[in-house]
């Protein structure tokens, strides 16, 4: 049986394919020119998932993806308009032109690569299961009878559903903050998340006993554009190489993740970094 995210991705792929039937190379070549002429680039980010993307007390977007997005604006010489995204709306917002680029913690997976074009990786994390120390979980089967919260359609939703099946005790929430709040409030016994969830849980519930139980996979994030957008994809790959080489990307990693920049893979199976 196909998982929810796989079905969604297949639908998105169909939309993307229809949208670009008959697209010309000239149309691709104009994408950067249009952005520069408009003087603004709209970048999708998370609104409630620190340290990747969140809103501070003054209403400003902050986070790892936001800082990388600002560098994109600087390099292009345009203003940046950040568009906060719910997890399930990330690909639809790109395909319906609500954003020019999607950077909302976009994990690089083959099903998504059928719907959007990924750049090279510019960040990474691990997809994990979190729960209280009192719950002994050494394999996913140990969690089968627990109530498990996940953001609907996210990578952790797919990982857990693939391993356990679409069982009733998997509780799906609209976003990351709702998923974490469900754990803190006792609505669920465990949550699927990523390695930065612990940072946010410690802020929301100081002195908690939540810990990483399982690692499902290592996830790399890329910058997403529409399928066939060759010119902007090539520009983004050159941009990532540049900011990785000159140290600006490493500074962002240290600032938001307190970790050195990882060594990015030269390839991710099933996910092309360039337009064919």
UniProtKB/TrEMBL annotation:
Keywords: Signal. Its main location: other. InterPro entries: SBP_3_CS, Solute-binding_3/MltF_N. It holds the Pfam family SBP_bac_3. It comes from the Bacteria. Residues 1-27 form the signal peptide. The keyword Metal-binding does not apply. SUPFAM superfamilies: Periplasmic binding protein-like II. GO terms for cellular component: cell envelope. It is found in: Cell envelope. Residues 40-260 form the Solute-binding protein family 3/N-terminal domain. PANTHER family: ARGININE-BINDING EXTRACELLULAR PROTEIN ARTP, MEMBRANE-BOUND LYTIC MUREIN TRANSGLYCOSYLASE F. Belongs to the bacterial solute-binding protein 3 family. This is Transporter substrate-binding domain-containing protein. It comes from Bosea spartocytisi. The lineage of its organism: Bacteria, Pseudomonadati, Pseudomonadota, Alphaproteobacteria, Hyphomicrobiales.
């Amino acid at each position: 049986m196909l998982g929810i995210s796989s079905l969604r991705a297949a639908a998105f792929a169909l939309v993307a394919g229809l949208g670009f039937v008959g697209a010309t190379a000239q149309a691709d070549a104009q994408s950067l020119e249009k952005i520069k002429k408009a003087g603004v680039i709209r970048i999708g980010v998370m609104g409630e998932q620190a340290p990747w993307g969140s809103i501070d007390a003054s209403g400003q977007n902050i986070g790892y993806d936001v800082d990388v997005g600002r560098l994109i604006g600087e390099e292009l010489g345009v203003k940046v308009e950040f568009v906060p995204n719910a997890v399930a709306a990330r690909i639809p917002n790109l395909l319906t032109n609500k954003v020019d680029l999607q950077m909302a913690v976009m994990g690089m997976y083959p099903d998504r690569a059928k719907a959007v074009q990924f750049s090279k990786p510019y960040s990474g994390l691990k997809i994990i299961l979190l729960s209280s120390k009192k719950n002994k979980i050494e394999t996913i089967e140990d969690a089968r009878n627990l109530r498990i919260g996940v953001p609907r359609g996210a990578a952790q939703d797919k990982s857990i559903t693939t391993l356990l099946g679409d069982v009733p005790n998997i509780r799906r929430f609209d976003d990351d903050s709702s998923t974490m709040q469900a754990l803190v409030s006792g609505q669920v016994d465990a949550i699927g998340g990523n390695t930065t969830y612990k940072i946010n849980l410690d802020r929301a519930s100081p002195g908690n006993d939540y810990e990483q139980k399982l690692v499902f996979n290592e996830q790399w994030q890329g910058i997403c554009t529409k399928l066939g957008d060759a010119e902007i994809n090539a520009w983004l790959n050159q941009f990532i190489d540049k900011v990785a080489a000159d140290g600006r990307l490493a500074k962002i990693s240290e600032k938001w993740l307190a970790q050195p920049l990882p060594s990015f893979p030269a390839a991710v199976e099933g996910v092309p970094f360039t337009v064919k």
